[in-house]
């Protein structure tokens, strides 16, 4: 059968895999964002601490995804746990780096003005510094999401969820009549999901970043 017939015949399974893929990436991005921003908040005031945070997260990113999941399987088993752990760790670097850069780039005079009107340190962080640092943080989140969309396909190696299962089934059955269709369907599905997520981030940026900051 041709590719379009394959899509028509397997659309329910493909939609289920796409839903699992998107859900896994979304949940891991939420975890990576919370952890990455927290690391940025804790380390941005110190040069050595910020460099250590960036170096540590960049080192994680150099570990091949198959090796990372392979190392996690003996500890966490197969399925969702190693997938979520690996994706969350891989998503940290752009968020941590951009959080540090964004927070360090806040105009000190604005922070001093907030201090002058009696704002506490947590209030200044939540109401002044983080909102002003949000544009670069959101950029880091977008970059991380695009990376994780592709890396999540490797989760099939550990019996994880997502469109990677379609790709792995196609690779495992190379030479069969549907092998190419399976690989193509999984790959195109990931591309479509990545574009949809990126469009959602653009909309989120328009809703959460004030026009003055965008300008």
UniProtKB/TrEMBL annotation:
Keywords: Membrane, Transmembrane, Transmembrane helix, Transport. The chain crosses the membrane at residues 24-44, 51-73, 147-163, 183-204. PROSITE patterns: ABC_TM1. It is found in: Cell membrane; Membrane. Pfam families: BPD_transp_1. Its main location: membrane. It is a multi-pass membrane protein. Residues 18-201 form the ABC transmembrane type-1 domain. CDD domains: TM_PBP2. SUPFAM superfamilies: MetI-like. Belongs to the binding-protein-dependent transport system permease family. This is ABC transporter permease. It comes from Streptomyces ardesiacus.
């Amino acid at each position: 059968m041709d590719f379009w017939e394959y899509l028509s015949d397997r659309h329910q399974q493909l939609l289920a895999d796409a839903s699992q893929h998107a859900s896994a990436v979304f949940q891991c991005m939420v975890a990576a964002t919370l952890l990455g921003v927290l690391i940025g908040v804790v380390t941005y005031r110190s040069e050595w601490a910020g460099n250590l945070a960036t170096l540590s997260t960049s080192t994680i990113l150099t570990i091949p995804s198959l090796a990372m999941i392979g190392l996690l399987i003996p500890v966490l088993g197969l399925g969702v746990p190693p997938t979520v752990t690996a994706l969350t760790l891989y998503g940290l670097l752009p968020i941590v780096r951009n959080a540090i850069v964004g927070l360090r780039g806040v105009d000190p005079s604005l922070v001093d003005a907030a201090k002058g009107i009696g704002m506490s340190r947590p209030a200044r962080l939540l109401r002044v510094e983080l909102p002003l640092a949000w544009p670069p943080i959101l950029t880091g989140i977008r970059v991380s999401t695009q990376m994780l969309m592709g890396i999540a396909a490797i989760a099939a190696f550990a019996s994880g969820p997502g469109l990677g299962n379609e790709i792995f089934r196609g690779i495992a059955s190379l030479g069969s009549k549907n092998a190419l269709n399976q690989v193509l369907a999984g790959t195109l599905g990931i591309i479509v999901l990545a574009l949809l997520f990126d469009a959602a981030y653009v909309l989120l940026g328009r809703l959460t970043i004030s026009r003055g900051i965008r300008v």
